[in-house]
Amino acid sequence: MNILYATLAGLIVGIVLGLTSDYFTSIDRPPARKTAESSKTGVAINILTGFSYGSISIVPPLFGIAIATIVAYQLAGIYGVTMSAVGIMATAGMIVSADAYGPIVDNAKGVAEQSGLGEEVIARADRLDAAGNTAKAITKGFAVSSAGLTVIALLVAYAEIVGLEVVDFMDPFVMAGTIIGVSIPPFLSALMILGVGKNAFRMIEEVRRQFREIPGLMEGKAKPDYARCVDIATKGALRELILPSVLTIVSPLAVGFILGKDALGGFLAGSILSGMVFAFLMSNAGGLWDNAKKYIEDGNLGGKGSEAHKAAVAGDTVGDPFKDTAGPSINTLLVVMSLTASLFAELIVLYALI
């Protein structure tokens, strides 16, 4: 029965996550509307407001994960913590379908605009898209929480493999490893966002080139070279992911072989803590900025074309790489680093310099 109760603890955390993400990203809730209102004073206040609400949204899920970790551990040890992660993902079918819903309704809005179906249809598609943004934020929250509890279990697995009974943060090597671990998730996020910026620049240049060189494109009489744009997006994405991918595998190995097994334990703990903070912040703030823009496009605060709308569009442009690129990638980062540490644990014990 203790295993069941540990699983239920995770399931309850999932409910907390869903309610939190819904509150902070929904177009009908105060955070999105207040962020939209802040757009009347310009881009800077829009971004500051959205970032602040995104930071506040970190607190409930992290408290929930902390409580669930304690409860599950008391019930069934580290296996209970693992089962609480299973509890969070017990609704996996709903989570996957909700995650797919977001892109579907987003593209439906694009089809409505391109097909000239009228303002009424586009307005309805906008509301569906707003619901899709909230659904995506909720599913990302489930993924972050599940990854967080899973990597806690993997950290314990690593500790058992190397015989590390206690992570002593007063040890200077452990402290150094922890500090390095804290720095990895924001560093990876920065690389991902910079990659988005570089690829966006290439795409804009290509679109401008096609408008210049393809006769009749601006008037809608000629077709653009879609394949070239897809090629830029695909190759650019693969190119920009090389360094983050290498970083994910090399960083735990470097810490382990240079600073030792204790330092690597601190490294994993530090990366888990900062990783969950950045993942929740980026996911919720991104959805919040997007729906603040949609609230204005619904005809509020001056509607489309107003100064508030221009500021909200800038905020949404910041939010897209937050919620669609940098935030979700942190889940993979944490899991891969933890698995790498466990996989090479015995070699680190034998060949570490310290």
For this entry, give a set of tags.
354 residues, mainly alpha
How would you explain this protein's 3D organization?
The protein has helices at 2-25, 30-38, 43-56, 59-88, 92-114, 119-162, 172-213, 226-240, 242-259, 261-297, 307-343, 345-351. It contains 12 helices and no strands. It is globular. The protein has 354 residues and is mainly alpha-helical. Helix content is 85%, strand content 0%. The protein has one domain.
Reconstruct the topology from this structure.
Elements: H1 2-25, H2 30-38, H3 43-56, H4 59-88, H5 92-114, H6 119-162, H7 172-213, H8 226-240, H9 242-259, H10 261-297, H11 307-343, H12 345-351
| Number of E strands | 0
List the uncertain runs: none
CA-CA gap between termini:
44 Å
Mean pLDDT: 90
Radius of gyration: 23 Å
Largest sheet features: none
Structural class by SSE content: mainly alpha
What percent of the residues sit in helical stretches (DSSP H or I)? over 70%
Number of domains: 1
Assembly type of the chains comes to single chain
Instruction: Give the helix tally.
Output: 12
- % residues in beta strands: under 5%
Question: Order of helices and strands, N to C?
Answer: HHHHHHHHHHHH
Inertia-based shape: globular
How do you describe this structure in short?
By secondary structure, this protein is mostly helical. The chain is built from 12 helices and no strands.
